[in-house]
Specification:
By secondary structure, this protein is mainly α. It is built from 19 helices and no strands.
Length: 522
Amino acid sequence: MNKSNAINGSIDFIESRLTEAIDLGELAQQAFFSKTHYQRLFRAIVGEPVMEYVKNRRLQLACRDVQAGNIGILDIALKYGYGSHEGFTRAFKAYFGVTPSEYRKYSNPNETEADVMLSNELLNRIEQNAEKTSAILSNFIEEAEKLVSLTNKTAESAGEKGAAATIVANGLSHLAQRMGQLRNETVRNLTTGGRSSFEMFDRIYALIRCIDDGVFQMHLLRFFCGIEMGRISPPKDQFEAIDADYAKLCSEFADNKEHMIALMNEAVELLNEDIKQEAANCMETCIKEVNKAIEIGESTASSAHAAAKSLNHRGRAFFHIAKEVSACMDVLKNVTEDFNILQDNALQNLSTALSQLANIVYSMNIHGFNASVEAARAGNPAECLAAAEKIAQFTEVLQTTYRQCETLCSEYGRLTELTKRNGPQCKQALTEKHIDDILFQSRIVSSQFALESERINREAFRALAQTAITADTNLVKTRNVAEYREAIAKFLQALNREISTLEIGGSFAYLAKEYENFLKHI
């Protein structure tokens, strides 16, 4: 059975059992895989762990029941497998940012006199933007399906070497499916029925977050696909076609994100101070989650170091991954300090704290992918598999923590800045966002470059990797884009000289091209 089809069948099985007990062993057996292989395959294709998927889908269905208002909160909790009202409330608030009771109150405006309803004129403007967004998503889905087919064809021609590219193509296929679901269930129904200002903001913000995630995942998939294509060395015209199509999709997603921000701008003016108060109430929980992530991360780093040692001289790349995991702990502690200050209304630390946390989440996604690849290259020894699994679990914790902190920071920062359009604060916000985008992209490229340097085992490339990482670190500290651009330009010159000494440029040639394109956009 095709692996992707097997996982799709498993998803159908899960959807039919969301109000019943779901056992991981039963899911693996139903898909004809071992539990370990099933979990790894599900995460690679779907983009999140299987039980996380189950939990999120249950919460999404529970949200509909909460909004309907004809079932008690406790009954809804029991229906979807929660043993208590308190446990359901914690999970619901962590995912949606408000408690079930609060969500029900804002979803039913007749229950409160303080709520403000959107005007028909504003609803019509939002509906027009929703229609445009739906059309962009439809075009993305169509182009993504074509690109998946082309990528799989190229990977097939490479035999076993194309396995990683196939995983990337599966990721793109799933992303297209998610965007199709988003279009059908959310975008096309955005203005259906009466909408309060709070509920409309909740829906639009959730939509923007999905597009933000999609933009980043599309960039990441394009980048990893290019790396794998560089290793496979496909025909030049075919490689250029794939690269161009991925770039086109990334651009379309970025445009789509701007439509979502326009929607936010139209609705945000009607929101009240209750949103900011709710964000303040979430702050303490966010700090606790970051501290919990630090504890889990320290255990994860120890496991990765042990795995690297077990490989002896073959563990250079794995040891690099372990060091990166350890380095994340210091950054997380800084984030906790920033959020503690933020709790005292020092909003100037908001952007830095969220940027640091987002960088860690993105980095751990990369390290998790690379740890699985390195484990497979080493023959899947037990210690490496255990370390890769711990990194995956740590990444899940970080993703949950980031989602909570992102909600808080957006309510205090992004929401406030968006309501001050055309002023100096808005210009500053745009500048900070531009720098954050540069940081995200540079961290991805430099992290992959460092890993490739370990694989090739040449000191000159290791030194260049350290140069790129130092440039990233300085940008975080100084926020000086001009200095960063100058440093990367010099780095690129040295990189091209080293590439010329290689018989086959492969992935390094592709990385050089990424840096060249990156410099053009700074």
